[in-house]
Design goal:
- The protein is α/β, with parallel strands linked by helices.
- Helices cover 41% and strands 17% of the residues.
- The protein is built from eleven helices and eleven strands.
- It has a seven-stranded mixed beta sheet, with helices on both faces.
- The chain starts with 11 loop residues before the first strand and ends with a helix.
């Protein structure tokens, strides 16, 4: 989609991060601030997401180029993050609106995921303050972008852990079940399975994949593999890795395994070069979209080109796993 700009007169915008943190959020904040300054727009950083927007006061911070110096390589978010139940109420949103008006805010760049964008859309419908979202979530589950900010870093973190676990699995001839994040989406687990050379994967999207794992281990006596690694997305239909461990031990006599839950380590760490570039492009594009009069849309990259997708579609349209990658898991385990 060709990007045409008819810049509106916008004097001041705000940026905040909300929901679960993801590597690259700081790079996105940096891009928002410096792009706004480049276009002579003032920028206010809101601490603690919607919670800070409601509480006001010191949570509203005037930002300049120096405010975002030396942060592109840092994980987490300098603006902090939280989930606000109060923003889900009309009274909470009214307080947030009053604070935005008091600080002269005319537009918002919100960095987060489903909940963040849902709140922004409701807020616009009630009070008319436009928002553009940047997809900051390791899950990569938002429709309208090939990759979300933090996904690439999370995969690399998971693969690094799998590589280390493989050393121990090989040394002891053991099976390891490695649980990765993904309550509703298996993008991290699928990519990490292929990149980490794991033998099997269980995903929320594949409702019968547990039977394939059982058959794999029942037939392993016909192979010469002395160890195995199975990746389990935390949201698969049978439950997490401990549940799968119980199931395999119940169905396969003599089965032994070890469970590793990677957990929140996948959220942290310095973002990869890809995530830094992605976050920079989306943060900058979000500011220019606001200037172009856009609202209630998420910035994304599709086939490496900048795209805007409505919040509604980004949240509610299902993003499918790549069937070619699912096929590769079977091919490589023959």
């Amino acid at each position: 989609m060709e990007r045409l700009f008819y810049f509106y007169s916008m004097k001041k915008i705000a940026v905040f991060t909300s929901g679960g943190d993801s590597p690259g959020m700081n790079a996105c904040i940096r891009a928002v601030v410096r792009t706004a300054i480049y276009h002579s727009i003032e920028v206010c950083g809101i601490m603690q997401g919607y919670k800070g927007m409601i509480e006001g006061g010191e949570n509203f911070i005037e930002m300049n180029s120096r405010s975002v110096g030396n942060i592109i390589q840092r994980g987490g978010t300098i603006l902090k993050s939280s989930r606000s139940k109060e923003f889900m109420t009309p009274e909470g949103r009214k307080l947030a609106y009053d604070n935005l008006i008091a600080n002269g805010i005319e537009g918002i760049v919100c960095i987060g995921g489903n909940g963040t964008f849902t709140g922004a859309e409701i807020f616009y419908n009630e009070y008319g303050i436009p928002s553009i979202g940047a997809p900051g979530t390791i899950d990569n589950d938002l429709y309208g972008t090939d990759f979300t900010i933090g996904f690439d870093t999370a995969i690399n973190t998971a693969v690094d852990a799998i590589d280390k676990i493989r050393d121990t699995a090989d040394s002891h001839g053991r099976t390891f079940l490695v649980e990765l994040m993904g309550r509703h989406a298996g993008f991290i687990s699928l990519a990490a399975t292929i990149a980490g050379g794991a033998e099997q994967v269980l995903l929320p999207e594949l409702v019968e994949d547990h039977s394939k794992v059982v058959e794999f281990f029942k037939g392993r006596t016909n192979t010469k593999k002395s160890f195995s690694i199975v990746v389990v997305a935390e949201g698969n239909e049978e439950g997490g890795a401990f549940k799968i461990d119980e199931m395999l031990k119940a169905e396969i006599p003599g089965f032994e395994s070890r469970v590793v839950i990677l957990g929140h380590i996948q959220r942290g760490g310095s973002p990869t070069a890809y995530d830094r570039v992605l976050a920079s492009r989306l943060g900058s594009g979000a500011v220019e979209a606001l200037m172009n009069g856009e609202k209630n849309k998420m910035a994304g990259l599709i086939n490496n080109r900048f795209q805007l997708t409505s919040f509604h579609d980004a949240i509610y349209k299902r993003k499918e796993l790549n069937p070619d990658l699912i096929k590769l898991v079977d091919i490589f385990n023959c």
